[in-house]
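User:
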Amino acid sequence: MQLSALPTLLANSLQKLPPIRPRDGRLLVLLLAGILAVALNFAFSDALKTVEERLGVMGWTLTTDDAIEERITLVTIDEKSLAEVGPWPWPRQELARLVNAIDEAGAQLQIHDVFLAEPKDGDAGLVAALESSRGAVLAQVPILQSEQTARVGAMSHALTAVSCGAQPPGASSGISLPSTQNYIASHAGFSAISKGHITPIVASDGSIRQFPALICVDGMPYPALAISALLEATNSVDWNASVRADRSFFGPEFRLQLDAYPGLNIPLDSQGNIRISYKQAPNNFRAVSASDVMSGNIEPGLFENTWVLVGATALSMGDIVPTPYSGATPGVELQARILSSLLDAQMPYTPRSANWLLGFISICIALVLLKLAAAPARVSAYGLPIAGVVFPVLVLTLHIQMLSSSEVWMGWLFPALYSLLAASLLLLLEQSRVRVERSRVYGNLSSYLPLDIAKEIAYTLPSSAINAKRCDVTLLSADLRNFAAFSESRPPEESAAVLHFFFVRATAIVEQHGGRVHEFKGDSVLAVWDGQHREAALQALQAAQGMQEAIDQDMLTPQSASHLEPLALGIGIEQGPALIGSIGPAHRRSHSLLGDTVTITLRVQELTEELAQPILIGECAARQLNDQQLISQGSYLLSGLRIPHTLFAPAISELAQGKKKSTKRMPPKLKVVAGNRD
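Assistant: Predicted structure:
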C-alpha cells in the first residue's frame, strides 16, 4: 500500500467509528487533563516544585507572627565582631571568653552554630568553659553531597533506639533517612560536648525549606542541632528516641519521639525531614553582636532564662542562605526558626493523606468544570476561562489558610495545574464543538438562504429586534405561467420534479451572471443584484434572457395537456432601494426583502402574461440600459400602487412574442394610462 493512500484510509476508518457523545467527550478531556497534569509534574518537577514552594509560603509571609521571640537570643559573629576581635577563626581563648560571658549573663543553654575541626592552643580552656556552663552544644556537618569525601574530626552524640538500616514492622517502616560516610566535625578533644548537625536540604533554586531531623553516618543516626539542644537541656545522659509511622488520616507520615519529651512528636516526611517554618519575620529574633557580649555592652537581663544561638552573620563567612523574606539570611536564623517551632510544638508538616485530599479537590473541580461545559454556549464560553483562573486561586487560598492557621502544608499546585489544563481543554473542546455545529448549521442554511445571510444567522444569536439594512438593489422576478393548471393534471411528484429542475437551472443562470437567489416562493424565483447601476441592470437582463433561452431548449420538457396552455416564463426587472434583513420574534425570525422596489418588480412580472411579453423592465432599470434596444410598452397603473409606471421590453423578445400572439389577453382589471404598442 502506498503512503499517499494512508490519509484516505484513515479518514474512512474514522468515519466508521461511532460518534462520541458530548458528555463522553468532556469526560475524556477531563481524563486527558489529569494525565497531562501528572506528566508535567514528572517532567518539570523541580521547576513546578519551586513555584509551589515560593507561592505557598505566602501563608506565612502574608500573616507573619509579630511577637518577639524572647526564649531565643542570637549572638552574631558580624562585621563589627570581626573588626574588633579579629578575623575568623578566632583564637580559642576568645571563644572561651565569649562562652563565659554568655554564661555569666544568665543563659540557660548556649548553642554554637560553629565547629572546631583542628586542634589548637587553648582547646583545653574552651572545653572547660563549655563544660562549666549551664549547657552547651556544638555543630557538626555530615556531608550529603556525593562529590565531597572529607572526614574531619569525630562525630559524636548519636541517638539510640533508632536504626539506620531495615526498620522493624510497626516502627519506622517506610522511612528513608539520609546517609553518608563523610563529615566535618570538631576534633576528638570536644567529644564530651553535645553536638548536633547543621546540614540542610538545599533545593534546586538554592533555598532551604527542609532540614533532616536525623542523618546516618556510618550507620549511626545523628540529630539536628535544634533537637540536640532539646536533649541537652534535659541533662539526659542517654539520648533515646524512636521514629514511628503515623496512622492517622490527617497526621504526618512519621513522628520522631524523644524519651526526654514524652509530649513532643516531631513530624517527619518519608525522608526524615523537618519543614522549616517561616511564620516569624526575621526582626522577631533578638540579636546582639558577639563583640558587645564579650565587652559586657548588652542590656541587663537580656540572656536571663534564654537559649543563646551563636552563629556567623558576616557576609565574609559565607553562612548565607535565601529565604522567602530575603535573598541573604544567616544560617543561624534557620536554626533559631527550627528551635522556636520545636519549643512551640508547632512544626509544619504535610499530611500523609495530602495526595488523597488534593485528588478529591481535583475531582470536585472536574465536576464543576463538567457542569460548566454542559451549560449553554454563552455560559461555558465565559464560565470556563473564569474557572480556569479562579480555581487555582481558590486552591492556593485554601493552602495559605491551612498553613497560617494550622501549620499544615497541604500543597496546591496539582489541583491548580489540573484545573487550568482541564478548563483550557474543555473550552477548546466546547469552542470546537460549537464551531462544528455552527458550520453544520451554516451548511444547511446556505442551502435555503444566501451565503452571507446564512453566515449571519448561523454565527449570531437571534434577537427580537429588527435586523435589517437599507440598500440599493436590482431585482429579477421570474414566474412559471400556468403551473397551477399544470400541477392539477399531474401527480405531485412530477410537478415537484419540474419545479426543482426549474429552480436549479434558474439559480445557476442567476449566479453565472453575478446575482444571487433571494427566495423561492411557490413557482417563482426572486433574484438580487447589489447596487443600482448599469452593470447590475445589464446582468439581470442577461440572466433573464438566459432563462428564456433555457426554457425553449431543455428547462421545461414536459408537455401540457391539449386543453391547457403550455408552461411559459414571465420575468420582471426593476431597480431601487430596498430593506434587507431579519424581522419577527426571536423564536421565529424571517429573512425578508421589503420595499416599493420589491412590489413594483413583482407587479411588473405579473404583467408579462397580460402584455404577452416574456421580459418586462421597469423604468428605473431601463434608464441604466439606454444603450440597449428597448421597446416601450406604455405606462400602467400597477395593482396596489398610485403612480403609473412605464414598462419596457427588450427587442429580442419580439421574436418570442410572435410565437405566442394567440395567447395574448387583456383582462378588464388592467388599466392602461398611456401606451405605445407597436
